[in-house]
Amino acid sequence: MNATPPPGPNSVADVTAGLREVGYLPGESTALVSYLATKLGKPVLVEGPAGVGKTELAKALASYLGRELVRLQCYEGLDEAKALYEWNYRKQLLRIQAEATGTGWDAVQEDIFGEEFLLARPLMTAIASEEPVVLLIDEIDKTDQEFEAMLLEVLSDFQISIPELGRVESRTHPIVLLTSNNSRELTEALKRRCLYLWLDYPSLEHELEIVRLHAPDLSETVARRLVEVIGMVRELDLKKPPSIAESIDWARALLLLGAQDIDSDTFMETMSVIVKHRTDMDVVADRVGLKLGSPAGDVA
Amino acid sequence: MSPEDASEGLPARILELGEELRREGVAVGTSEILDAFEVLREISWTSQEDFREALAATLAKSQEDRRIFELVFDRFFFRSVEIAASREGIREGDLAELDELSESELDALRAQIAAAMRDGDEGAMRDLARMAIAAFARRQEGSGVIGVDVQRIRRALGLRAEPQPELPVEDPRHEGLPRDALRRFEALLRRELERSQIERTGNLPPSRPLGELDRALPSGPAADLAAVHRVVTQLRRRLATQGMQQRGHRRHAHVDVRRTMRASLQTGGVPVELKFRPRRPKRPEIYVLCDVSTSVTSASVFFLSVLHALHDTFRKMRSFVFIERISEVTDIFEHERDFKVVSERISTDAGVADISGYTDYGRVWSEFLVQVEDELHPRATVIVLGDARTNGRDPRADIFAQIASRAGRTFWLNPEPKLYWNYGDSVIAAYEEFCTAFECWTTSQLEDFVRALTRPVISAGG
User: Fold this and answer.
1) Are residues B318 and B428 in the same domain?
2) Which of A19, A184, B138, B178 is the most buried (most CB within 10 A)?
3) What is the enclosing helix (H) or strand (E) of B2?
4) Are B338 and B298 in a shared domain?
5) Partner residue opposite A76 with nearest CB, options B27, B42, B244
């Protein structure tokens, strides 16, 4: 972590270069929206299929800007207590029990509603932080609408009011990223407050670059072949199409095996790296495996 | 840069663009417009890509909106530029001076276009489109109808998506050109033709709102399956999570006394934390009847792929296709993941048309009832996909009523717009008494249906 965070970017090109430096190759719109987010301090809603690097973007932004990443993973039934803050009941109970019987209620109350007894959850952490942070609210579509409504308040004013303590205002302006897999429509009100970024599977050339970055020892031809095959697999109607992370895993696997080319044998052997469903494997073996042709050179 | 220093008319243009997006049904609020101005302050409006992306990030907040935004943005700024150009008297005419091309030069042009398409080089494609127009303007008179001209030029250039094996292997046309690039090139041709038409006449054709066609489900016989699939994938994801989501909405759970007591031991017998009994929504059991007769040919591709998606999601589901009689296709769907194979097998093996090939609803209902009578119960959902056109036969709504009364819920999806319901031999009114009928020919209508379908079945107890 840098001792002094670098000054904010001055142009879209700065963001592109900075993100590249930390190992994330942004597309054009990704860099632009990230730049706008740092400039305007508006939350960004990132949508797209699973595994295109939505979460990675937040991590990369954090490390590029030298900020801490605060992550709130959303799930079904997430509530304020888990997202904002919670009183540490057990500690409070202990405190009351340990208190000598003579102490009046007022003194105890003063005592048990102090910062000491507060458990800060991600949103609270992000807002109360001394240093500016990147706040990632992951898979917001998994929560229910009530939670979204609560979030609106936090996102527009960057403050949280705790009845017993008063208001906690943000000292710095966090960069907020919300990701969604689009499993339900988010409310208009939330969208209204955000910049919108749609991340899709990268183009062939772009993905090639990503794979080469993460598996630099893999030969150019194999990498290109790999990306082409991945493209073919994504065209099929699968339960779970391979994500970018899986392309990278596959590239590394091939590297370990020392593969010189992706022929049908290598493909069949390593397919499980990119396809993770029984039924999908059959389809992929059928459609893609056969097209690749048998190993060149050795005639059995 | 503040909007005031930007070119004089820019703020007005942005407002107009917002206005136009609203007309196309994109929810653009004042706050979005303000955001748009704010982001334009941060980026240079002279870079077209940045300008477009920045506006899109603030104005279009879903993928669908984004698609409409692209269409509107292109049309809007194209028109604005043309208005300004014709007011200022700027023309771009030099290329029209091109001499007639010889056959070999034409071949070179074809190869260049194919190469530009393969590389997805937008700038080169635009230049080549203008050259192609100029070349063909010499060879033959344009028909004056832009759509016809575009197709004529495309044919003359021999640009096809199908592979052309007679060409050498290194030629991009050997494998066939990518469809997207072809479409892109056609759009460029169209735009350049429009531009020259505007230059000739000196005024703009009236602007038309985006056709319903642009957003409607692709349902032509040559419908792009991929487009249908995109809709369906979305649907599948929704279905997969919907059941879970409902769980969160039920706040009035029962307290689980046992677990609460146990948890209270941690806090010295004070029940600080209440434990609730989890409530699991019951997944419905679904029976689907899908019409595959000729009158719904275009829609049945879509319906079948919806069926396909449903099969992925619901464990307990039986599907039938029908024309004159019904045939169960559950097995085909369960064992075959690929949609194309499914539709082929259904059209060859199902054996649903006996003699006339016309739908016979009466017979379908009675056969269905015989097959599933014992299985229907109040938690079952029956979905019928069809246009309710009986070809003059008896609708036998009485049998349908029996089915509906045994099943918990009955839905009808009709691929025809509501306007045509109950005209001619459509008897949907007779069935509507017993079921909930949805018109379903656009994506949003489909979503309405999905919402209704995944609403939890209200069951006694549990």
Assistant:
1) yes
2) A19
3) none
4) yes
5) B244
Helices vs. strands in chain A: H and E counts, helices first = 14, 9
Amino acid at the residue B255 = V
Q: Which of B58, B70, B232, B455 to mutate to test the interface with A (most CBs of A within 10 A)?
A: B58
CB-nearest partner of B337 from A47, A183, A283: A283
Q: Are residues B145 and B49 in the same domain?
A: no
Identify the CATH number of the domain in which residue B340 sits: 3.40.50.410
Residues of A whose CB is below 8 A from B276: none
- Residues of chain B in contact with residue A141, where contact means CB-CB under 8 angstroms, are 241
Contacts of A282 in chain B (CB under 8 A): 337
* Distance of alpha carbon B255 from alpha carbon B410, whole angstroms: 35
Q: Are strands A175-180 and B436-439 parallel, antiparallel or unpaired?
A: unpaired
Residues B45 and B107 placed together within one structural domain of the fold: no
Phi, psi of B382 (to 5 degrees): -110, 130
B1 in a structural domain = no
A183/B241 Cβ within 8 A: yes
Residue of B52, B245, B444 for testing the chain A interface, max A β-carbons within 10 Å: B245
Residues B448 and B336 in one domain: yes
Provide the domain count of chain B.
4
* B380 and B346 inside one domain: yes
The whole domain housing B185 covers: 94-205
Interface probe for B, chosen from A52, A78, A182, A196 (most Cβ of B below 10 Å), is: A196
- Rounded to two decimals, the pTM is 0.64
Read off the pLDDT of residues B205-228 as tens digits, 9 standing for 90 and up.
Answer: 555 555 444 444 444 333 445 555
Report the alpha-carbon distance of residue B20 to residue A118 in Å, rounded.
50
Domain residue ranges in chain A: 12-75+126-198, 85-120, 204-292
pLDDT tens for each residue of B425-447: 888 888 888 888 888 776 667 76
CB pairs under 8 A between A and B: 100
Contacting residues of A for B270, CB less than 8 Å apart: 93
ipTM of this complex > 0.90?
Answer: no
A135: confidence class by pLDDT, cuts 50, 70, 90: very high
CA distance B148 to B133: 13
Cross-sheet strand order for the sheet of A68-73: A68-73, A133-138, A175-180, A44-47, A195-198
